[in-house]
Design brief:
single chain, 346 residues, alpha/beta, GMP Synthetase, Chain A, domain 3, Rossmann fold, eight-stranded mixed β-sheet, binds adenosine-5'-triphosphate, binds magnesium ion
Length: 346
């Protein structure tokens, strides 16, 4: 049977999805009682009585605690914060950002996000970085997909072998000079699975920001895992993200996940600066005529829905897979990302 302190620590893994902070830190867990016969009781003080996220938080907390040895039942009653508590909470809603290593100077942090997985986020991040470098920019990529990292593979960077210096950990550097950090550079081999819990993932992301010697960068691109996971939230809250590039495919309408992402970014005051519809069409090899094989493009509506005027359609291009798989994404040559680059350079 876990103790009160252990229970509180466990509950730090449950977040208010709307606020993106854990329910213990938010002081939502009240009147915790643990009985000898294995029943845990507490009140969850909601910020607003009809909080749409209450079922989700209740389910997460229950699942987590029921999995502990000796726990027979978890009883959660809902309460409500007082006006005063609520005011206090929102007054310090933006926690202080962890400090960037004093030797670093990063002008712009841009996160690459998507609603779904496998839409080409990492490939797009890599191609954006490559194009920025070709424009003479100093660029870094922080691979925030801690459990599913793919940046090193795209650039042919081997696992392990990171070096340290007095000032910090040195990032790996690609053939064209893009500085990168990823869990895949830390593990002994590419297939070593990283099975970590939320707090470890968050800690690693913060360290990728604070402990890496990025030096002078014009742009640091952050490759996020898909959706609005904890990791995405950690990035948004722990790094001074200037803007988000949203990657989607034609199959993805401005659905639930995108709405969630938009709501999260709005609360954090981070703008979506561009939408990239990847695998938008297949250009006929002979005539260049576009075939919309995944259905008609929705990128214009999507851009409007997320509040940006800038959108780009990228074709299906077998070279992306071929060069990406071979670790040679930098050699792919020009892709049609110019308007996005202009905005990143602005
Ligand atoms: N425009 C494209 N044309 C053809 N293949 C593409 C294109 N963009 C991406 N791909 C391929 O699609 C696959 C998924 O791409 P990628 O890993 O970049 O997606 P992701 O959104 O980062 O995925 P995850 O959600 O797993 O992080 C890869 O095999 C990649 O080579
Ligand atoms: Mg990826």
């Amino acid at each position: 049977m876990p103790t009160n302190v252990e229970i509180m620590n466990l509950l730090r893994e449950v977040s208010d999805p709307e606020l993106g902070r854990n329910i213990v830190e938010l002081n939502m867990v009240r009147d915790l009682k643990v009985s000898k016969d294995g029943v845990i009781e507490f009140t969850l003080a909601l910020t607003i009585p009809g909080c749409p996220m209450k079922a989700e938080m209740e389910r997460d907390a229950r699942m987590l605690l029921m999995a502990q040895p000796g726990v027979k039942d978890v009883r959660i009653t809902f309460g409500e914060m007082t006006e005063e508590e609520r005011r206090k909470l929102f007054a310090n809603a933006s926690p202080e950002l962890p400090k960037l290593n004093q030797f670093n100077k990063v002008k712009k942090v841009i996160a690459v996000m998507s609603g779904k997985g496998g839409v080409g986020k990492s490939s797009v991040a890599a191609m954006l970085a490559t194009s920025l470098v070709a424009d003479g920019r100093k660029v870094g990529i922080l691979d925030a997909d801690i459990t599913g990292p793919s940046i090193p593979k795209l650039f042919g960077l081997p696992p392990g072998g990171l070096r340290g210096s007095e000032q910090g950990i040195l990032p790996a550097v690609t053939a064209q000079g893009i500085k990168t950090i990823s869990t895949n550079l830390l593990v002994p081999n590419e297939d070593a699975a990283v099975i970590w819990r939320g707090p470890m993932i968050a800690g690693t992301i913060k360290q990728f920001w604070t402990d890496i010697l990025w030096g002078d960068l014009d742009v640091l691109l952050v490759d996020l895992p898909p959706g609005t996971s904890d990791a995405a939230l950690t990035v948004m809250q722990s790094l001074p993200v200037n803007g988000v590039v949203l990657v989607s495919t034609p199959q993805e309408l401005a659905g639930m996940v995108v709405r969630k992402a938009v709501s999260m970014l709005k609360q954090l005051n981070i703008p979506i600066i561009a939408v990239i519809e990847n695998m938008s069409y297949y250009p006929c090899p002979d005539t260049g005529h576009p075939h919309y094989i995944f259905g008609p493009s929705h990128v214009e509506q999507l851009a409007k829905a997320v509040g940006t005027d800038l959108y780009v359609r990228l074709p299906i291009d077998p070279k992306i897979t071929e060069f990406g798989d071979a670790g040679k994404i930098e050699q792919i040559g020009s892709v049609e990302l110019k308007p996005v680059l202009e905005r990143l350079n602005a």
